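Minutes, project check-in
Item: structure for the 414-residue chain
Input as provided by the requester:
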Amino acid sequence: MAARAVPASPPGSGGGPRDRTPPPPKPPAPQPDPARAKPTTPETKRVVAVLDEAIRKAEVATLLSHVAANLESFEARLGEELSRAVRVHRDLASRLDGADGGPGPEARPPDPDSAGEPRPGPRSLRRELKGSTRGILRLFAARPEAAAALRAQARGRHPVAAALVARLAELRGFVFEKLLTSPAEEREKREFTQEVARRAGRNAEAILALRGELDAVVRTRDAEAEKDNLADLQLKTDLQLVLRFSQTQLHRTRQEAEKPQKAELRTSQGRCAKIQQDILAQRTQVNNLVSENREIEGALRKKKYKLETEIENWIQKYDGEMGEKQMELEELQAVYTEEKAQLAQLQEKHAVLRREYTQITEERQITSKKKLEEERELIVMVRAATLIQAFWKGYLVRSLMKSKRKKKKGKGKK
């Protein structure tokens, strides 16, 4: 961790070992099983602790150039001692850049007071820079909050430095997995790898066999395609011959068709001339008919005007008569309305009288019904009384007859 921090290169600067783009990050290492994610032996704990400490120091060391370039913004969080150490580190880095091959982006002009003193070489500057880095890391270790604040500035880290931190994290995961893997698990992994290799060999043989079959099929298909191409070429040749023959036949047919067409054209021209003469004659006849029709139209217009005048007179006469009829109709309507009102009054009176008559008739019917019932009851009672009297008379007669018979019997016994 004593290596010099990689300074951040400004955008657009020339390519160099500090400016090359880092390789793409590898996929993350497989994480250990959570059931045994904690080291158990002291040796494992020490190794993991050393790796974690190395990663933390690398994170801080790779951000020193960013902190040195923006020391004013970090000075309040770092404190006076750390700020002074970072400032000294920045001066050493600038001097080393100047000694390596020219002033760096943050190099300062030489101090005139030290112009006569011998300048240290790059090797001694590197040793001083390593010592400065160790001192800064010790100061950050004494102040964890400052280290945490610095690690939060991951965006200021150079891509190469970021790749270094990522590789260290991968190394830590790989070593941790190795430390947690038992010999039995290692043997199982080795056997599994060998089995996978054997399967890969068998698959490769199968792939070779399939490729041979595929090549044979491709050759067969190419041969068939070549045959099809030859057949297509033959068909195209035949088609061109047929096309040429059809064009010749078409030209000959056109020539044969043009001969009767010319004769018909001459005949049609003669017919057109004759039709033109007929048109002139018909036009003259039409003009004569138009003159005659105009005279007839004038006479008809006069007749129409006369009829319209008569119709207008008849309409006026009709309007006058209809006005008189309308007045008579209105008078009759008034009389009708009055008589209708009287009729309504009479109908109301008639309805009242009708109801009274109906009521009287109903009362008379009820009275007559009562009389009939009383007469019927009287007749029934008279009949009943007559029957009772007759029965009673018969009873009395029979009683007298019985008593007379008893008397006669008594006298006879004596």
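Outcome recorded: Confidence is low (pLDDT under 50) at residues 1-35, 102-117.
No further action items on this chain.
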